[in-house]
What does this fold into?
Amino acid sequence: QVQLQESGPGLVKPSQTLSLTCTVSGGSITTNYYYWSWIRQPPGKGLEWIGYIAYSGSTYYSPSLKSRTSISRDTSKNQFTLQLSSVTPEDTAVYYCAKDMKNWGQGTQVTVPS
It folds into this structure.
């Protein structure tokens, strides 16, 4: 059973870059046909998909966040990382990582103060 765990700072200052890491256990991020996503949920709102990095290393981002988003991976550590630049208070959310949108981490709260 694949397990995912998000980690990173819970507080990010406005205009800075948010950086979160998802550590995967029980399976390899390079296994064929797996897609590793980042998703967030702002307070009182629905889920918003941010982007994914595929088993091949290719990436795809939500058009609305593409200009500020980068997802990368470290295969030696079996981790993938989200970077979201120029954050504002609107980026305050619980951030999740997921495999194929089926296996999810527990989520991590990130707050950008106003």
